Structures are given as structure tokens and as C-alpha cells.
């Protein structure tokens, strides 16, 4: 009798383990049925905005493990999904929805609910960021035209103090204090636009100088000479690259940090022209590696790697903004159109954009899982709504997807 009970329990557990694997795999398969069947850009835009709006206050956890078998073991060990707040995920949603909310009062109200949940009435963080990726979330506040940003001055000041606390001996900002001598490409996107927006608003030129130094130091030591392809990181003492050159989302991080910093600077600022040269050079680089279908791969230099929606969404934003007074601006516009068209083709029926490379494990250690990601959703929304604004003035449209 005891033996039969033991066998029964083991059988039930085995069935449960298999069932969990089946449900998770089956869910992805189910949502990918009729993927990318949107008939026009207007319907698609509304769909991705609706999904982003739902995610803003209920951001899905980011899957960490790449395993697709015996997933219950990862769940028990706490390795299945990232339960900590990833400010860069929420920031991307907020940046995208800020672009879409300019004429949408209902969406503005949803954003206000997020603000009330994230900040106190006195303008402080409810849960103060401990890592510098909180700076991109703080930057998003400057893009909300319908709020009084000075109300959140205490949180913005705390963000500046956090960045100051991460400055290394070389005068640039660390990604994490545990890696004092490493400088990551992600940091360009995390901090530089915030530093310029904050510095201009509150007359702190040292913030702008730090943003410029962070970018130019990375250009010097983290970009491949002449080709302008970034590596994942570099070591400040020996100036050697770390990780691979050409990580797709790494190009996205560098691109969005560069272009938003350049946009924030006034035309008469001495750093503006020098950054513009880099914008032109980087534009040429990323156009070179764009696939025929409009996407960029998870490693852009390897045609064998998979297309990555997160890289495509961020690089489309870069190119859309490199279209005013920039050399070869028309080529940038067309490349951005192709990128947006690709994102339409990988959007699920419920509006979630699929096939983004999962969260990175370490320098040079990348996810093999490609699925949904709030970061991608946010930048697709941001890109599409800017595209629609620009398309009106340029009398240009995305071709309808049949």
C-alpha cells in the first residue's frame, strides 16, 4: 500500500512537470497563430499601444532561464523569471506611451496612475533605484508634456546623486559597483539622455559634460575603429574590449543614448556638432547590417543569428531621429520604415511584439530565448508614433501589410 502511494505521488509529480512544460510551450505557440496579420499601420499602432498601456501598471516578469524542459526546477530554485523591478523595461513603456499620449487623455490618465504608484506626492521615489538603469526611467519624466516635471525634482536629484555615486576613477560612470573597471554599452542609453535633460533644466553643465565624456570615451575604447560597431563593454585600465562586437541590443543601447543626447542638446552647444558626426557615422554602420526584411540580428555581424525585435525597435528610433539636417537622412528614413514594417510582421494578435532576445546573463553571455519584452514594446510604440507624426509632414506612408 505504501509503495503504491509512493508510485502514485511520483506519477502525479511527473505529470505536473510535463504539464507545466507543455503549457508554457503551448502558450507561445497559441499566441503566435496568425502573427503579423495586421492590415494597416493605424490598426497595428492602436494594438501595440493598448498592450503597452496594460503592461505599464502590470509589467510582466522577464523570463531568465532559457530552458524549455523541466522548467519547474527553475521555478523552485527561483531562476525562472526576474521578480525585481527592471527600470529600463518600465522606462521604455513610459517613453513609448508618452509619444502616443499627446492627444489621448485616457492614456494620459493611465500614465498618471503609474506616476502615483511610483512617486510620492512630494515627488520622491516610492522605491528609490539602487542601480543606474533608474536614470532612463527618470529621463522619461521629461518627455511627459502633460505633467509638471519640477514636481518630481526630489526624485530627479536623487537620480543625479546615484549617478555621481557610480563615477569611477577614470571620470566615467560604472554600470555596477561590483564591476568598477568595466564600462558597459548599456550605460550610454541608461544615463546620457537624462544627464543632458536634467543638466539643461537645472543649469548643471557638469551633467552635460559627463554625458558627453561617457559617449566619447566609449567611442574611443568601446567602438571598433572605422566601423563604429560597439562591443558589450571595455575595461578601463587596459582599454581592452569585453564580450562580442555587434551585439544587436548593444547597438540599440548605444544608438538610443547617442540620438536622445544629441536631440536634447541645443543647436549652439559645442558638443552638438561633434555628436552629430558620430550620429552620421553610426547611421552608416547600422544601415549596413540591416536585413532585407528590415530587422537586425541578435549579433548584427552574423547572418546566422536570429532577428531580434528589441534591436530593431531601438535602431528604428535612432534612424527616425537621424532624419533632420543629417547627412544621408533619406536613407535613414527608408531604413526606419523597413524596420517598422518588420515589427508589424512579428506582432501577436493581442498586440504584443514577439521575438525579442531575452535578458542578458553576463558580458558575452546572451539569451537563446526570443519572446515578448516590455522594452521592445515601448520602443516600437515610441518609433511608430514619431513615424506617424513625421509621415504627415513628409506625405509618406508605410505600405499596408496584406
TrEMBL record:
The chain crosses the membrane at residues 6-31. Keywords: Hydrolase, Membrane, Transmembrane, Transmembrane helix. It comes from the Bacteria. InterPro entries: 6-hairpin_glycosidase_sf, 6hp_glycosidase-like_sf, Glyco_hydro_88, PolySaccharide_Degr_Enz. This is Glycosyl hydrolase. One of its GO terms (biological process) is carbohydrate metabolic process. The keyword Transmembrane helix applies. PANTHER family: UNSATURATED RHAMNOGALACTURONAN HYDROLASE (EUROFUNG). GO terms for molecular function: hydrolase activity.
Amino acid at each position: 500500500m505504501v509503495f503504491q502511494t509512493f508510485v502514485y505521488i511520483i506519477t502525479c509529480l511527473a505529470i505536473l512537470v510535463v504539464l507545466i512544460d507543455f503549457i508554457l510551450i503551448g502558450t507561445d505557440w497559441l499566441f503566435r497563430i496568425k502573427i503579423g496579420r495586421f492590415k494597416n499601420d493605424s490598426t497595428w499602432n492602436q494594438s501595440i499601444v493598448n498592450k503597452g498601456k496594460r503592461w505599464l501598471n502590470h509589467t510582466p516578469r522577464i523570463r531568465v532561464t532559457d530552458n524549455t524542459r523541466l522548467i519547474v526546477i527553475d521555478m523552485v530554485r527561483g531562476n525562472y523569471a526576474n521578480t525585481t523591478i527592471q527600470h529600463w523595461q518600465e522606462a521604455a513603456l513610459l517613453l513609448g506611451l508618452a509619444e502616443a499620449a499627446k492627444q489621448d487623455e485616457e492614456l494620459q490618465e493611465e500614465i498618471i496612475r503609474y506616476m502615483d504608484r511610483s512617486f510620492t506626492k512630494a515627488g520622491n521615489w516610492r522605491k528609490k533605484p539602487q542601480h543606474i538603469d533608474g536614470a532612463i526611467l527618470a529621463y522619461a519624466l521629461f518627455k511627459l508634456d502633460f505633467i509638471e516635471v519640477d514636481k518630481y525634482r526630489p526624485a530627479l536629484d536623487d537620480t543625479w546623486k546615484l549617478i555621481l555615486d557610480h563615477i569611477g576613477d577614470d571620470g566615467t560612470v560604472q554600470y555596477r559597483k561590483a564591476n568598477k573597471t568595466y564600462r558597459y554599452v548599456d550605460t550610454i542609453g541608461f544615463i546620457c539622455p537624462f544627464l543632458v535633460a536634467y543638466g539643461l533644466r537645472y543649469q548643471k553643465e557638469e551633467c552635460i559634460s559627463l554625458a558627453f565624456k561617457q559617449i566619447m570615451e566609449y567611442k574611443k575604447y568601446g567602438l571598433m575603429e572605422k566601423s563604429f560597431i560597439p562591443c558589450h563593454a571595455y575595461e578601463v585600465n587596459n582599454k581592452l574590449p569585453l564580450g562580442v562586437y555587434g551585439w544587436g541590443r548593444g547597438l540599440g543601447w548605444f544608438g538610443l543614448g547617442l540620438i536622445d543626447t544629441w536631440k536634447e542638446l541645443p543647436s549652439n552647444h559645442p558638443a552638438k556638432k561633434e555628436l552629430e558626426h558620430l550620429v552620421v557615422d553610426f547611421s552608416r554602420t547600422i544601415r549596413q547590417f540591416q536585413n532585407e526584411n528590415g530587422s537586425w540580428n541578435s549579433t548584427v555581424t552574423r547572418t546566422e543569428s536570429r532577428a531580434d525585435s528589441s534591436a530593431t525597435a531601438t535602431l528604428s528610433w535612432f534612424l527616425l531621429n537621424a532624419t533632420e539636417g543629417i547627412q544621408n537622412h533619406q536613407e535613414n528614413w527608408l531604413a526606419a520604415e523597413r524596420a517598422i514594417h518588420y515589427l508589424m510582421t512579428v506582432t501577436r494578435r493581442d498586440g504584443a511584439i514577439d521575438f525579442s532576445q531575452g535578458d542578458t546573463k553576463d558580458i558575452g553571455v546572451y539569451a537563446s530565448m526570443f519572446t515578448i519584452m516590455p522594452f521592445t514594446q515601448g520602443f516600437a510604440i515610441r518609433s511608430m508614433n514619431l513615424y506617424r507624426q513625421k509621415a504627415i509632414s513628409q506625405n509618406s506612408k508605410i505600405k499596408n501589410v496584406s
